[in-house]
Amino acid sequence: MSDIFIGTCGWTDPALLRSGWYPPGHRTPENRLRHYATRFPLVEADSPYYALPTARTTTLWADRTPPGFRFDVKAFSLLTGHPTRPSALPADLRGHPRDETLRTEVWTRYAAALAPLREAGRLGTLLFQYPPSLVPGPEAESFIRTARERAHDWPFAVEFRNPAWWETDRTASFLRDLGATAVATDTREGPRQAPVTTPHLALVRFHGRSPHWLTGTKEERFRHTYTERELAEWLPRIRSLSTRTKELHLLFNNCCADAAAEAARTMRDLLA
Which ranges does the record mark as transmembrane (predicted)? Predict the structure, then answer.
């Protein structure tokens, strides 16, 4: 049986901070992360998707969490083909063409910034979430393969937002060949399982079951309070996954108020 890690996608979402989930007095980044780490052993760091992190920041993340804690870290938007604001890039790169040379330089800086997490044993995986616009085909596979070759010695997980990727058996063999973890999801369509593609990690992201998934504002897309029954649907799948990997990560992304933290707690109780 694998070690099961449960957590939320982010720990500083404004809605979570307003919800009262953090005890009074926990107003600093240090206090919040230290408190979070007493409740869950895993968190997804999503801020690196929006801007490149710094080594100082990730060193502090490692220092403020206990041994055995895991950070799954989202890849910077440019690395996954998402629209990227010029202001999100380092100043010296903003005028550069959006090509593989730029992505290689961005990857180099991204990897250097995350090195303290890996060296401290806190890194779970890098999460490359690809947009709906990335449709299956040779060009898309080449794009992903190039990203994997840059990150050849890093843990690497892939989430596809275009469902067509899972309408062919080729996707599973493609990810196995890359040594990449296939990410399963839960959305308004319900559970979408992904095959186990690496022996060391399986990952499930629970996005909520909003009817506005992929169409509304961020708040509308992720506004959902999971019921115990909805989470219990996953128990047989989770038990099956846990027999085939070293670690299983369950992350809750229904980030309105404290809904993700409550869903993570409920899932932990169900599995207990």
Answer: none
Tally of domains in the chain = 1
3-state secondary structure of 14: helix
Q: Is 226:272 a contact under the CB 8 Å cutoff?
A: no
Listed as ranges, residues in the chain with pLDDT below 70 are none
Q: What is the pLDDT of residues 92-106, one digit of tens each?
A: 999 999 999 999 999
Q: How far is the first Cα of the chain from the last one, in angstroms, to the nearest whole number?
A: 14
* Residue 165: domain span: 3-271
| pLDDT score recorded for residue 176 | 98
Please name every residue paired with 72 in a beta bridge, in sequence order, or none if there are none.
44, 125
pTM of the model: 0.95
113, exposed or middle or buried, with CB in 10 Å at 0-12, 13-18, 19+?
Answer: buried
Residue 208, Cβ density class (10 Å: 0-12 exposed, 13-18 middle, ≥19 buried): buried
